[in-house]
């Protein structure tokens, strides 16, 4: 390629630059300028003084950063590597025979621009990684609602891919109803974090599958020249937090129930022992009077009533002793399917079960459970009889068994009765609490069942079903809790 042709292409390249390039002599005259500079300062720029056109920061000769008399020598030395100017431009010296004949002024520094571009690229990559690495969903949208940023956590929480979100998802699609408008209103108010900010605001987000997700939202408005241009939100998924809170609350209630049962158990044991012997004496002497004396029929009936009432008291004492754990527990590996089936077989012949249909849904692979079979049978019988009474002898009882996780089994008893009133549900396992008429229940049946299950390391609970009826459920561990022994009846 001929030198003339090379110079032509070089000039074309310089003129095609969308940056200002000006050649200035040592006497401040403009020797040459590219087309971009001419469009900016005028086509007659060549030959004029640079400070007359205010090219660069200087407007007077004595303040010239390049040729000023006070710093001319040190500036000339700096020109070899480029001298940065206050306005962001750079000057490079034009040298001939060791003397500087002028300078080339650029409104940018090519090496510096390259470094800045690389730094900007690295910063952008770091920012993208930072946003994508966030454990919370990060979503940014412009003021029309178009999604600008949608990180990996947002995809995981809401079910949309990033491409789907950036291509067609609208920020209003994430919020149900008017919740998006409420978020914007709060962002523009001073109520939660100050204007333009929103802290720990509880909202609901709608996932791709239509499910609603509880969210704790931290959001900000992004401003540019005082104008709202976008919003950015950090969406913290509350599902796991709420689940843990629920489990903690259930555990707290179970611990409270257990401590209450323990205290009442000691009281019950003391009361049972104190009245057991007098009751035995009442029954014995009433029986002796009936056998040894000739009595009128009316007197015999009165004595029999005394004996019957004393026996009822003794039955109550027996339940009190059960409640106080005054029985010996013999733990062995037991088949819960057979244990429940045996209980149902004994009860379904009872008159109250004539119009009750019993459905069995047993897991045939259910592992054996370490328990005292007699005590657990007592639990099953109590629950099943309660269900029958709740249905008033007519309905359906569904009994299911299944494995729960790797270390538990779940047993459920669901009836089609009227359900349990909410004010009763919270007290249903309390000792002496009963909704039955006076004389028809001691209020100890379910509390004794609760204690038995608790002694086996399990949990007994009750809940109402949405379609009606109630369910009693039992969780039993597959790991033995250790044999617990009481003192026996006294």
Brief overview:
Helices cover 42% and strands 24% of the residues. The chain is an alpha+beta fold.
User: Distance N terminus to C terminus?
Assistant: 119 Å
> In terms of structural class, how would the helical and strand content be classed?
alpha+beta
How much helical structure, as a percent, in the residues?
Answer: 40-55%
Rg estimate, integer Å:
44 Å
Assign an overall shape: rod-shaped
Strand order of the largest sheet: 2-1-5-4-3
Let me know the number of strands. Answer: 17
Average pLDDT score: 80
* Tally of DSSP helical segments: 14
Describe the main β-sheet briefly.
5 strands, antiparallel
Low-confidence parts: 438-442, 483-490
How much of the polypeptide forms β-strand, as a percent range?
15-25%
Description:
The protein is α+β, with helices and mostly antiparallel strands and 490 residues long. It has 14 helices and 17 strands. A 5-stranded antiparallel beta sheet has the order 2-1-5-4-3. Strands 7-6-10-9-8 form a 5-stranded antiparallel beta sheet. Strands 12-14-15-17-16 form a 5-stranded mixed beta sheet. Helix 9 (239-292) packs antiparallel against helix 10 (297-323), helix 10 (297-323) runs parallel beside helix 14 (445-455) and helix 11 crosses helix 12. The protein starts with a helix and ends in a 13-residue tail after the last strand.
